[in-house]
Write a structure and sequence with these properties.
Strand content of chain A: 15-25%
Largest sheet of chain A: 3 strands, antiparallel
CATH topology of the largest domain in chain A: Sufe protein. Chain: A
Radius of gyration of chain B: 22 Å
Oligomer: heterodimer
Helix content of chain B: 40-55%
Shape of chain B: globular
Largest interface: A-B, 46 and 35 residues
Order of helices and strands of chain A: HEEEHHHHEE
Chain lengths: 170, 390
């Protein structure tokens, strides 16, 4: 069900691991939705000198993270800001339809990491990380329906946008 | 390298005897059992032999109580909708549990849209229904209680006899979804005292596309399919005779081998659970430790996601199943795992490992080795694992 490029990045992911001295960190997703991604960047002369990731998720999520780090490495901050989830999926030669939204969060995490880097540079204090937030749904943060990318309201039994049932499994 | 199949719950391999019988039937039994000429008679003969073998497997009082369907899902739909429609005059209340298969849950949801009321009882941390909860949920309007036998995700076997004691006394019909159990553990419909029981041939080394519904004599139920008089007018449509022949042979072998199958799978299950506990830290074995299917191990591997484990095992020619939402195409973690107390992350990392008579101890050893490496690799990538490691 996955392309050869996806399987290659899944089997031998690039740039795995936490970066202790990162200049910017971006975290997206939560286990309620199924995927979590952390992106760490090291910036020198306005360029992403090093990048790494930690991901909890399916094969697509891991491949997306790996591919994203490959694409972003060596890019200037301005260039990196142009990387989108769509361009990552294209570099992977496509993703299954139901993985296009929920597992394709790499670029979002990168953009958050860049914002974190810029905030730190501007002297803004980073809010303390609260890991417990990521175990439960927080307000204002919702899962994306993998079929239509609408926000999924956890109180409903089906996606209010496309009607797909929540626990439509076997 | 040959495949190590540890995903029997998805489909069993067809036994050689089953394959041979089906090939033979393809050549000989193209006739329609409803025909009154010799081709019809020959077809009827093999059809009724298969029915008899199935009746023996579940110890039905008479083969006439067995109706062939296209799947476990059809049987379940037939049982629930058939009772709901036939007894709507008496009431529109149905009782079930929180850990039923979607074939039950979605059928009930459909009925709810048609004005039926459904009470769903919760289960304990082992996945067990408390029969007292069923008794408490019964009202004057209750027409049906539907509770599964062995659970397909955590393996727990429900106290069916204790529940039917209650429904029998109250004169309420009882349906049992025994799809994951028939052919795996002894099922005796008379001892369990059920009115309706659903099963599927692909859970006991028969072909996919053949299900069965046990209907106790005298149970008032509407057919799901109207048309010809096949199956004594209880299920219209020309029979899938080739598949039914395969199911019959598979049932005959399952009856004969039941004791050795249970013993064999029990040994493998104990070995697998012991190995998992020794080799892989931070896991939860789901389901009841004793009252459960002997051919199923459900394990939540903390800090990693199930589909990525399945892919890694598949690379090593080992097939297992996961209950992760990502793999199933669902938007949410499994309702069964959440019901037995797993949190979202643990539910996402749950594997269901199922096996059968062909599975060897060496295959279990190989799974344990490959899984150990896969878990280590994936945990190195996991932000959740990184957090607990500090």
């Amino acid at each position: 069900m996955y392309s050869k490029v996806v399987m290659d990045h899944f089997k031998t992911p690039r740039n795995v691991g936490e970066m202790k001295d990162a200049d910017g960190v971006g975290e997206v997703g939560n286990p309620v939705c199924g995927d979590m991604m952390n992106i760490y960047i090291k910036v020198e002369d306005d360029r992403i000198k090093d990048i790494s990731f930690l991901t909890f998720g399916c094969g697509a999520a891991i491949a997306v993270s790996s591919m994203l780090t490959d694409i972003a490495k060596g890019k200037t901050i301005e260039e990196a800001k142009k990387i989108t989830n769509k361009s990552v999926a294209e570099a992977l030669e496509g993703l299954p339809k139901n993985k296009l939204h929920c597992s394709n969060l790499g670029a979002d995490a990168l953009q958050l990491a860049i914002k974190d880097y810029e905030d730190r540079k501007a002297g803004k204090v980073r809010p303390p990380s609260r890991p417990e937030d990521r175990h439960e749904h927080t307000h204002g943060e919702s899962c994306k329906c993998p079929y239509c990318n609408g926000d999924v309201n956890s109180g409903l039994e089906f996606c209010s946008h496309c009607g797909k049932e929540m626990n439509d499994s076997n | 390298m040959s495949i190590i199949n540890l995903d029997y719950i998805s489909a069993n391999p067809l036994l050689p005897e089953v394959q041979e019988a089906m090939v033979e039937a393809i050549k000989k039994n193209y006739g329609n059992p409803s025909s009154s000429h010799r081709l019809g008679d020959e077809a009827t003969e093999v059809l009724e032999l298969a029915r008899k073998n199935i009746a023996t497997l579940i110890n039905s009082a008479s083969p006439e109580e067995v109706v062939f369907t296209s799947s476990g899902t059809e049987s379940i739909n037939h049982a629930i909708k058939g009772v709901a429609l036939a007894h709507a005059g008496k009431g529109k209340h149905i009782i079930t549990s929180n850990i039923e298969h979607n074939a039950v849950l979605k059928t009930l949801r459909r009925l709810m849209k048609m004005g039926y009321k459904v009470t769903s009882v919760s289960v304990d941390e082992y996945g067990l229904v408390n029969p007292a909860d069923i008794a408490r949920a019964i009202t004057d309007e209750t027409i049906l209680v539907t509770i599964m036998h062995g659970n397909n995700e955590v393996g727990t076997i429900q106290p069916i006899k204790e529940i039917t004691r209650i429904t029998r006394e109250k004169d309420i019909l009882f349906h049992c979804d025994a799809v994951a159990s028939v052919g795996v553990v002894p099922i005796d419909v008379q001892e369990l005292d059920v009115d309706l029981l659903s099963f599927s041939a692909n859970q006991f080394n028969g072909p996919s596309g053949i299900g069965g519904l046990y209907m106790r004599r005298g149970v008032k139920i509407w057919p799901l399919l109207d048309g010809g008089d096949q199956e004594n007018g209880r299920r219209a449509g020309t029979e899938n005779l080739i598949g039914i022949v395969g199911a019959g042979v598979a049932a005959e072998i399952a009856s004969r081998e039941m004791e050795s199958r249970v013993n064999h799978t029990k040994i493998l299950k104990d070995k697998l659970i012991k190995g998992l506990k020794e080799k892989i830290g931070d896991i939860i074995i789901n389901g009841h430790h004793e009252i459960s299917l002997p051919n199923l191990v459900s394990v939540s591997v903390k800090y990693i996601e199930g589909e990525s484990i399945v892919l890694m095992l598949d690379e090593e020619n080992i097939t297992v199943s996961t209950r992760s939402a990502c793999a199933s195409g669902a938007l949410r973690a499994s309702h069964v795992l959440l019901s037995v107390g797993r949190d979202y992350a643990d539910a996402q990392g749950t594997l269901v490992i199922t096996f059968g008579k062909e599975t060897t101890e060496a295959e279990i050893d190989r799974l344990l080795d490959v899984l150990e490496t896969a878990v280590e690799t994936l945990r190195k990538m996991s932000p959740l694992y990184n957090k607990v490691q500090g």
